[in-house]
């Protein structure tokens, strides 16, 4: 009886170790994706700022028509 319990516990432990490894792989991939998205977001912010700065140069500094 004790040997059967030990075998069952070892099997559960093996499944848990495998599950933990799978979760760790997912976490590593998600961290890579997050870093990639942060980088892309930063580039997009810079591009929007550049475009905004360019557009402001084309707009004359005057009051809107409703003033």
Low-pLDDT runs of 5+ residues are none
What would you call the shape? rod-shaped
Q: How much of the polypeptide forms β-strand, as a percent range?
A: under 5%
- Helix count equals 1
Q: On the 0-100 scale, what is the average pLDDT?
A: 90
Query: What pattern of helices and strands is seen along the backbone?
Result: H
Structural class: mainly alpha
Q: Roughly how many Å apart are the termini?
A: 91 Å
Beta strands, count: 0
Radius of gyration: 29 Å
Helix content: over 70%
Main sheet: strands, sense, barrel: none
Question: What can you see in these coordinates?
Answer:
This protein is mainly α and 67 residues long. Helices cover 85% and strands 0% of the residues. It has one helix and no strands. The protein is rod-shaped. The model has no long low-confidence stretch (mean pLDDT 90).
Short description:
85% of the residues lie in helices and 0% in strands.
Features:
67 residues; mainly alpha; 85% helix
Helices and strands in order, then pairings?
Layout: H1 2-58
């Amino acid at each position: 009886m004790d040997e059967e319990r030990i075998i069952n516990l070892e099997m559960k432990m093996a499944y848990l170790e495998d599950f933990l490894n799978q979760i760790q792989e997912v976490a590593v991939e998600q961290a890579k994706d997050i870093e990639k998205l942060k980088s892309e977001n930063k580039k997009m912010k810079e591009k929007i700022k550049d475009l905004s700065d360019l557009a402001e140069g084309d707009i004359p500094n005057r009051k809107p028509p409703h003033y």
